[in-house]
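Query structure, 212 tokens:
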């Protein structure tokens, strides 16, 4: 038997062990983040600590620290999961010929996403207005691009340059985020419908102003 064949047989078990170890790490990281999301959902974002996570998955805090150096890193990872889920949802929106109706449909789907996942609004507000610890994940840029593509199709007279579009997107995002956060302080049963109606009216008013 040649030396090269013997060496290959020695290498294969090592590679399989590394692959298995990598899969185990990914599974544990996913378990930690899912437990984090569940804590936010059932007890609120203030309940999310390294110790509470460790108790949730029945491991020591040292195991959590192997994957995340701090609670802030967990917040960042959960924020990425939020945008990933939101992007998947928004991609289900079919193309609509009328750009204004397309934009309004995006808003409806966005509100519906948070209505079904209301625990994520608190996480969303932490990302927007909390301490400056969050880097925007790639999905944020993609979602912003989807909104931008629709807005360009509106051919608003006052949105002539990319800078104009960027400023308009900031206004739309501020309106969207503000209304979602305000919904957390409403106790009426129809609060999310009111948020959606207010957002749609706001978007129509903005488009009318940008097109005047």
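Result returned for the query:
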């Amino acid at each position: 038997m040649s030396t090269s064949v013997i060496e290959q047989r020695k290498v294969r078990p090592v590679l399989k062990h590394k692959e298995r170890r990598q899969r185990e790490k990914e599974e544990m990281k996913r378990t930690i983040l899912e437990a984090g999301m569940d804590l936010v959902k059932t007890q609120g974002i203030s309940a999310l600590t390294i110790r509470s996570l460790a108790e949730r998955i029945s491991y020591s805090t040292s195991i959590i620290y192997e994957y995340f150096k701090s609670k802030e890193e967990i917040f960042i990872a959960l924020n990425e999961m939020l945008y990933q889920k939101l992007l998947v949802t928004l991609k289900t929106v079919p193309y609509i010929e009328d750009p204004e109706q397309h934009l309004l449909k995006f808003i409806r789907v966005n509100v519906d996403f948070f209505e079904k996942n209301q625990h994520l609004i608190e996480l969303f507000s932490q990302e927007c207005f909390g301490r400056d610890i969050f880097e925007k994940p790639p999905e944020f840029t993609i979602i912003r691009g989807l909104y931008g593509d629709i807005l360009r199709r509106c051919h608003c007279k006052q949105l002539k340059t990319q800078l104009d579009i960027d400023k308009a997107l900031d206004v739309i995002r501020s309106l969207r985020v503000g209304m979602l956060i305000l919904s957390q302080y409403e106790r009426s049963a129809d609060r999310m419908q009111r948020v959606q109606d207010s957002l749609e009216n706001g978007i129509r008013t903005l488009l009318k102003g940008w097109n005047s």
